[in-house]
Amino acid sequence: MKQQYLTIETEGAVTVVTLAREDRRNAISEDMLMEIENVFRAPPRGTRCFVLSARGAHFCAGLDLREHYEKDRSPVEFMTMCQAWHRTFDLIQFSGIPVVAALKGAVVGGGLELAAAAHVRVAEESAFFALPEGQRGIFTGGGATVRVARIITPARMIDMMLSARTYDARRGLDLGLCHEVVGDGQALARAKMLAAQVASNPPTTNFAIVTGISRINDMSTTDGLFAEGLLAAAVQTNPDIRERLEAFFSKKTERLEPGTR
Ligand code: 1HE
């Protein structure tokens, strides 16, 4: 299917999805959301890791405010749209295929909600994080109350929304909004490098990591430990890992060193 607001390129086992609505700072309209949903619902064959990137100076300015203004949606229409955002971002988080986001410039409102659904977030120095919804007189609707609040705590999210506080990339790193900061213009290359490495992990292991940990976090201790045991039983007994363990015994694997990667 032809996309109007995204580009999709497959490089080996890595599929790079690029938001391509630069003139609107990659703000997400209903049609654009549907395109995002489609690619994560039916990943190109052979995809073992996604990179989520953006054209232009900004990652994503969130909800398309102009479309919202012009459509003058009813409560039910907006609720239905929020459900589409939730469905799409759930697909990103839980499809079982890891997603590495390359962030820069504005990562705000729904743009932060989108980034928070990714598993690894690399940010350029130019990146900044904000939830300006309060200032606009609206509320988050793409999952921030769940995903962003879990990363930075509900108290900090409340402050962020009330005060329209902005965090730069370094502060975002301290708070967990991103996992690594790189120079301007370098996030995509770094994200591709990480994605290639992630893609070389066994798919079952990646599936367990990206679908299991967040869900277990929602469970009681007893249920969580039980679920962890089940996941580990499925992953650790995968015959494919024997070869990896043999490589480790014969010292053929890359050594873990402090500060690498
Ligand atoms: C937009 C949008 C948008 C820009 N919807 N059109 N999100 C926000 O409140 C962020 C709103 N945007 C901004 O604060 C700024 O645009 C940026 C900091 C991201 C970038 O600034 P700048 O100076 O590079 O660009 P600009 O001149 O502000 O914007 C360029 C154009 O993009 C301009 O249109 P033009 O016709 O004047 O060229 C802007 O109107 C347009 N544009 N952002 C529509 N968001 C499921 S609920 C989720 C809740 C939310 O996400 S609320 C949105 C929060």
What keywords describe this structure?
Lyase 2-enoyl-coa Hydratase, Chain  A, domain 2; alpha/beta; 6-stranded mixed β-sheet; 2-enoyl-CoA Hydratase, Chain A, domain 1; 3-stranded mixed β-sheet; binds 3-methylmercaptopropionate-CoA (MMPA-CoA); 261 residues; 2 domains; single chain; 49% helix; 12 helices
Would you write up a description of this structure?
With 261 residues, the chain is α/β, with parallel strands linked by helices. The protein has two domains: 6-199, Alpha-Beta Complex (2-enoyl-CoA Hydratase, Chain A, domain 1), CATH 3.90.226; 203-249, Lyase 2-enoyl-coa Hydratase, Chain  A, domain 2 (Orthogonal Bundle). Helix content is 49%, strand content 15%. The strands form two sheets. A six-stranded mixed β-sheet has the order 1-2-3-4-6-9, sandwiched between helices. The protein starts with 5 loop residues before the first strand and ends in a 12-residue tail after the last helix. The structure holds 3-methylmercaptopropionate-CoA (MMPA-CoA). The site of 3-methylmercaptopropionate-CoA (MMPA-CoA) (1HE) has 23 residues, from helix 2, helix 3, strand 5 and helix 5. It is an enzyme of class 4 (lyase). This is Enoyl-CoA hydratase. GO terms for molecular function: enoyl-CoA hydratase activity.
